[in-house]
Amino acid sequence: IQQEDELDALLKQTIRASKMVEKELERLNKIENYRKEFIGDISHELKTPIFAIQGFIETLLNGAVHDDEVNEVFLHKAMKNVNRLTYLTKDLMEISRLETGELKSNMQEMFLRDVVLDVVENLQYKADKEKIELIVHDFDKNIQIRADRNQIKQVLINLIENGIKYNKVNGRVEIGLNSLKGDKIELFVKDTGIGIDPNDIARVTERFYRVDKSRSREKGGTGLGLSIVKHIIEAHGEKLSIESKPDEGSTFRFTLTKVSHVSV
Ligand code: ADP
């Protein structure tokens, strides 16, 4: 009987182990598929600027253009594509670090108002250039959050930049705060821009998904901004939500958790 019990235990152990192996294989398979897809996406995105640069340089080297002014235009176009490759690479590195969970959040306590004002100040020139008004609602200066400062700044930068990019002339971007239940708060970035079709809303946070590729490119977009935003917010254990009406504007909201200091 004892032998039978031992055999039974061994069998159960083996089944458990094989289930674990199966699960691990499934996980590795998923990662492998993800990597394949990611590499496919990247090569596709890199091709366009690289071919463009190649074309401009080849034309210049062939000496087909004898006009200095035209030469300069070609050089500027090549440079624009080099710049595109630079920020594409930067965003790609960020997203791959976020998606593989390599990037450890550097959590610290901070005053939310300081972070918001810092970001807005740096984006003011961009808004002015595009004739977009940036409005920051009153923020309670005592609210503190625990977060990775650079990552939260990145979220705000990406959302506000999008609000500026996908807006209309003389449009507005508002940044404000709502109180939710308990220690939760909600930051929102609301614009009076072109809006997003209901069918596209769920997809705009996918990497490289763009509603209008040429508009995004023209504005220096990479299609990675919102996917970075979503990853950062989820890594903080918070939620992102999007509300939008075509031709009227969009509101991006994300939750944050207030730090409450209990005084003794
Ligand atoms: P991109 O670099 O193209 O701006 P994002 O990931 O930031 O990439 O956004 C993905 C797409 O979602 C954009 O190309 C655009 O079509 C749409 N989008 C993002 N933000 C807004 C907004 N505030 N208003 C309208 N459309 C937006």
Automatic annotation (TrEMBL):
Keywords: Kinase, Membrane, Phosphoprotein, Transferase, Transmembrane, Transmembrane helix, Two-component regulatory system. The keyword Phosphoprotein applies. Its EC number is 2.7.13.3. Residues 41-260 form the Histidine kinase domain. It catalyses: ATP + protein L-histidine = ADP + protein N-phospho-L-histidine. It comes from the Bacteria. GO terms for biological process: cellular response to phosphate starvation. GO terms for cellular component: plasma membrane. The keyword Phosphoprotein applies. One of its GO terms (molecular function) is phosphoprotein phosphatase activity. This is histidine kinase. It comes from Rhodohalobacter barkolensis.
